[in-house]
Amino acid sequence: MLLGEVIRVALSSLRSNKLRSLLTMLGIVIGVAAVIAMIALGNGAENAVKSRIARLGTTVLQINPQRVNQGGIGTTTSAKLTMVDVELTPLHGGSPERRPFVAVARSHVQLAFPYEGD
Hints:
Layout (H helix, E strand, L loop, with lengths): L2 H14 L1 H39 L11 E3 L2 E3 L7 H6 L30
Antiparallel strand pairs: 1-2
């Protein structure tokens, strides 16, 4: 087949199946728009996360005690930080770059209870 004949057959098929052609074009347009929207949404979320991390700054240091799992139950009873630990850190000592810091106490609780079924 020649190129001209292929184009003529394609155009006649499009003219004879107008609804099918319209729905196919609509599906392609919706699909491309959905891909573009998802990429834009992903980029926006990535930029939001990056800006939140950047707002933390490079001067934030968080030190957590070791978390121990015993018998499937998480516990922090074997390792707790005290103010003595804070005073022993190099950040607390006489560094000229020393900045003020705050000790924050948080706790996580995991409850275990016997289940009395029916």
